Amino acid sequence: MPWYVWCSVAAVTFAMVGTHWDISWHQSIGRDTFWTPAHIAIHMCGVLAGISCGYLVLSTTFNPQSALRECSVWLWGFRGPLGAFIAAWGGIAMLTSAPFDDWWHNAYGLDVKILSPPHMVLAAGIFAVHAGALILILGQMNRASGALRDRLQILFLYVGGMILVCLTIVQIELTNRVVMHTAHFYRVVAIVAPPVLCGVARASRFRWAATSVAGVYSLFLILMGRILPLFPAEPKLGPVYHQTTQFTPPDFPLLFIVPALLLDLVWQRTQPWGILRQAIVSGAIFLGAFFLVQWPFANFLMSPAARNWFFGAKYFGYYVSPTSIVARYQFVATEQGALFAKELGWAVVTAVFTSWLGLAWGNWMLRIRR
Question: How far is CA 182 from CA 30, 141, 177, 336, 347, in A?
Fold first, then answer.
């Protein structure tokens, strides 16, 4: 297995572990300093991706004997694998966001929203590292055969699952369990999940690819949700409405595993279909199956049965007021009548469109060799 493949997988893992750790740090302690272990873990992704992929590009460019010269692309006078260029840019963007984020917090407050300009620069960099790692592995996988291709396929599906983790983080403020009984929630989710499941599944050619991607997403969040509360934490910012004594874990993963399994089963029987027909069926199946399992599961997450260490509904950030609907385990009001039907209709349209994008993206990735 090439060394740069392992470096890209390590960078992706550092990013997602560090990001969830950092969110938990904000919820349990507050932003006390830039130099927290969680921030360092996040930016280790940028350092690792920038150095390893930058070296890969430079060594391929200036070493005439490099084995990658014949399977590389030219860009701005440099030669290297396409994924290496993307991941190296992502690493640079991540490191650029660090002083910008520190200045932003000093200017506008120690703890602010996830969707801030420096965080979006960081998110763009992290996503570029993920996309670069995916394409870097894919180029190698499409040139390989036998046992090597099988091992690369496992890593490809792993990175695909981490891309799903990455994109759902951006939506975390819009997908809390309190909004799971609104049609808008399903429209928001339909933006990110179908293209990842469809694209990675199409490119991998593995019959259970979507299930594997959703499984990586689910297992990662379950592990983070069970490991983080094992460590003590104490708020350092105020006001403190909820006294935390341990790190606050992420919410229980969304039940993507069910629609992913159904999609894998459907795709095994619809391979001769055109991309538009597949997208219509895939989008409808994804949203229908997800709606049918997530809506009643949301009821469970609001019940006393979910207030334990495994499902994690008992954990709150220090800033959560006891009078808030989150602390009182109440849902945001469901849209009424025509508005609910309209939002749900747009959710179906969104799922079909993003499924089409994912399938088209997957077809493009099938041709990647460089």
Answer: 30, 41, 10, 10, 11
**Pick from 218, 221, 261, 159: which is nearest to 24 by CA?**
221
Distance of CA 190 to the CA centre of its chain: 14
pLDDT tens digits for range 121-142: 888 889 899 999 999 999 889 8
User: How far, in Å, CA of 141 to CA of 112, rounded?
Assistant: 41
Residue 335 in tokens: 């849209």
Q: What is the DSSP letter of 302?
A: T
State residue 298's pLDDT score.
97
Is the pLDDT at 112 greater than 90, yes or no? no
Helical (H) or strand (E) element with 287: helix 275-301
DSSP 243: -
The Cα–Cα gap between 80 and 110 comes to 41
pLDDT band at residue 102 using 50, 70 and 90 as cut-offs: low
Among 2, 101, 7, 6, residue whose Cα is nearest residue 45: 7
Q: What is the pLDDT of residue 284?
A: 96
Mark out the alpha helices in 69-206 (DSSP H runs): 82-108, 117-143, 146-170, 183-204
